[in-house]
Amino acid sequence: MKTRPQIVGTPLERIEDHRLLTGKARFVDDIHIEGMLHAAIVRSPVAHGLLKGVDTQVARRMPGVHGVFSAEDIARDFGGVVPRIAIRAIRIPELEPIEQWAIATKKVRYVGEPIAVVVADSPAEAEDAADQVTFEIESLEPVTGWRQSAAGTSPLFDLPVTNRAITYTAIKGNARDCQGAYTRKERFRVQRHSGFPMETRGLLAVWESNAQRMTVYGAAKVPFFARRTLAAAMRLPLDAVDMIEVDVGGSFGMRGEFYPEDFLVPFASKRLNRPVKWIEDRRESLLGSNHSREMESELEIVCEANGRVLALRGSVAVDAGAYVRAAGVIPGRFVALMLSGPYDIPNIHVESVLYLTNKAPVGTYRGPGLFEADFFRERLFDCAARDLGIDPVQFRRVNLVEESQMPYRLATLDFPEETDELDSGNYRATLDQCMREFGWQEKIGLQGRLIDGKYNGLAVGCFIDGGAGGLKEHARIELENDGQVTVYVGSASVGQGLVTILTQIAADALQLPVERIRILHGSTTYLKEGVGSGYSRSTVMGGSVVLLAVEELKRRMRDAAAKKLGCSPDEIKFERDLVMTAGEKKLGWEQLGSLGLAAEVEFVNHHHTFAYGAAAAHVAVDPRTGKVDLIDYFTLEDLGRVINPLTARGQAVGAAVQGLGGVFLENLYYDADGQLLSGTLADYMMPTATDFPSVRAEAIGLCPSPHNPLGAKGGGEGGVIPVGGVIVNAIAAALVTMKIDPKELPLTPEALWSLIQSADGRSSV
Fold first, then answer.
1. How many domains does the chain have?
2. How far apart are the first and last CA of the chain?
3. How far apart are CA 317 and CA 332, in angstroms?
């Protein structure tokens, strides 16, 4: 049988890019519906206080205003109760008391919390009227850090343990009693920052009173969860709500979760019986969209004299912000669960405590908890290797999980109990390949050397990247009249190249050219159920369900063709010329297209995948200014099976640059009054295309995952995970003669310069 060249594994250019680059994209703000109104959100300027009252009378009389709604107005429609935002990930009863209300009721808990929504003919009129909404807030002491939260002097909620949301404990072996030849305890801290997508959040809600139906444009990431949440909050039947996915200008974990506005805007549309649009401005995005990363650890490592790690133990304090919403527990869970990374550590005991503070709630941001865990662990590893006089590369090599140990069990986590396993991999092989392609041996002579007034430093680190979350995914496939194939999938497109990847998978399985495949995704109108994107799941889960859908369609095509040709289905074969043969008989796909052949399937997977890899960096530090030049950065990741090397490489490079922004620039900084001081792009520094030009990446398919038919592993987050540990270790190696050990991010030029000035060895500068 003749077959087409394999499409999976080739660097196919992104199918969706032509439309995006030629201005044919359709973002939510591009959608205009006759009679559309515009919403503006009135937000609390106070971080913590009792909300005594909201006066909307003046605003209601402003030109163009159609409605102004506070908690009192909303509660009136829902039996005196304001709906709350359900937790999406790992929802347990202990967290329900600290779920966020859709609008502030008796208390405000962070600057930016919604306290009213204004709807008018234009955005400007809505904003003008929002300025006329007045309110009385009796200020309370703001809680602006986890230590203050732990002290419990200013409770945010009535909780048994004041301001402590939950404690997760990861346990393996007996780390508490473990003894060894060497121990070292250190504190490390990662600052609060966020995904900051190019396109801010936005939605357009359309209530059809005759049909009693709500349609919301602007869904992203998890549209089916958003549909369930909105239907429950508005007390509508599930089939009366649809979430429509349009183009999305980035997500990185934060876009697409359910926020207060995702209820408030549809509520306003239903109340006014008019379409209502809301587009978040950049300050609102910085104030209220999910933050992430802010953690501080105190960890102790126990080693044998040869560097073999016996135990990791300690605690991590997570600043969770004012509420637990959406997937806000995930960073705190993953930092404990994944702290050991790709290393064989027999004894682990780590507590991760989520503390409530008067800041915006946290959520997931690309590599949630894993970026932080890698920074903590890899910094501790380099400190231990230096103390023991062991080469840091050899220190890692001796501790990596062996291929023969797979599947390898990680620590067990509680609330609820979770035990995960690394599925497959040759971790030493990727480390060795990374070092070869980075040119480690050629560069190692530069370690610590002063060249042209700058100290050079090298470092390497290893990482894992969990994927395939969400248990299942759904798809429907249809053979069209013209012989083309349309695939509907529950996965969502958030800029990761979903259409390209799924097209390649479907085209390969069907032996069709990519032009004959059409992928439709995300919107709840396509399927009865679906999950979406996140947790590096789009390729693994979406791709696997597409593969199953293709197989089921081919089975039905065989049966239909056999009936038409008067033969057994076993005699039917598929060939590249878009015909099927049984002996000398042939039948075109177009002839079967009129039969309405279709299949709807789901792919169920109870196992996560674990991509893995290594990264290496070469930096040059100017001790006079604290400025760090990135000379070279290379990351290598085994994705089990690489569907598209071009998009995989692009994902890794983009993720690495995000990580570099977190290392050097980005910081959501609050003052003692709970006011965000970095609420504009003049204060919140972002990496640009010219800041880090020397980033290289490669994806390989060395060890397929045994848990899905593709053998693929999620690769959307691996690029960001090792960056903090690798870069800061390289800086420490450059300044080793000054005995400088950076332990906090961001490592801005000012922060590094201050460390250099205070170092014992500063006279050598």
1. 3
2. 71
3. 8
Among candidate residues 600, 523, 592, 537, the one with its CA nearest the CA of residue 561: 592
Look up the CATH number of the domain holding residue 371: 3.30.365.10
Please indicate, yes or no, if residue 491 is contained in any of the structural domains.
yes
- CA nearest to 63, candidates 116, 115, 124: 124
Tokens for 209, please give them.
């009173």
Mean pLDDT of 548-566: 93
Q: Are residues 339 and 484 in the same domain?
A: no
Q: What is the pLDDT of residue 585?
A: 79
* Residues 736 and 619 grouped into a single domain: yes
Q: Say if residue 63 is exposed, middle or buried (CB neighbours under 10 Å; 0-12, 13-18, 19+).
A: exposed
**Residue 542 structure tokens:** 């979406």
pTM of the model: 0.96
Give the end of a domain, one of 552, 573, 604: 604
Boundaries of domain holding 673: 295-468+607-764
Q: Once rounded to an integer, what is the mean pLDDT over residues 516-532?
A: 96
- Give the distance between the most distant pair of CA atoms in the chain: 91
- My answer on whether 553 and 691 are in the same domain is no
261 and 124 in a single domain? The answer is: yes
Number of neighbours of residue 18 by Cβ within 10 angstroms: 10
The answer to the question of residue 50 being in a domain is yes
3-state secondary structure of 762: helix
What was the pLDDT predicted at 566?
Answer: 87
Q: Rounded to whole angstroms, how far apart are CA atoms 17 and 421? A: 37
What is the residue-averaged pLDDT of the chain? 95
Looking at residue 760, its pLDDT comes to: 57
Query: Are 665 and 583 in the same domain?
Result: no
Q: Residues 6 or more apart from 573 whose CB is under 8 A from it?
A: 1, 580, 581, 582
What is the distance between the alpha carbons of residues 730 and 619, in angstroms, rounded to a whole number?
Answer: 6
**Sequence-ordered list of residues with C-beta below 8 angstroms from that of 659, at least 6 positions apart, any chain:** 371, 719, 720, 721, 722, 723, 724, 727
For residue 282, give Cα distances in angstroms to 123, 198, 249, 324, 680.
Answer: 15, 10, 14, 23, 7
